[in-house]
Write the structure tokens for this entry.
Amino acid sequence: MNKDTVINLIIAKLTEELELYRRAARSAHSEATDPHSKAENKYDTRGLEASYLARGQAKQVAELEQSLHEFRALVGRHFIPTAPIDVGALVELLAGKDRSFYLIGPRAGGTEVEHDGHEITVMTPQSPLGGQLMGHKAGEKLKLEFGGAKREFKVVSVS
């Protein structure tokens, strides 16, 4: 599995989300500043609600812009086979017969992309599972708390 391709897929997905949020933020801003949104009485809160929405979407835009910046910095960062799991690592885990793939990312945890027929999920070191994986190496067997229960995993690869 090519990690740079995975990262580029994540960048493409975040870019799409960014454009959606930018459009939504512009729309909410227009609604908030539209003269027709001016309160007609003390109970009319349309303009206020639109301004809260615009502010929240603007924050999401800033978060996505920062995520994109940090993911672009990961392209080309590769790990030697004996390297410990850290930000930027593509990790393959095996639990019984179930294989799962994670990219340890600086942000955007939970983002999912598909590559070579496999689903890859972005996980941050701040997440419960991400924090448990940090520092471990390929070949190690781990008992990790996953979904409220301890499960045994093998770290198949770190790249």
In short: Residues 3-33 form the longest helix (31 residues). Strands lie at 90-95, 98-104, 112-115, 118-123, 141-146, 149-158. DSSP finds three helices and six strands in the chain.
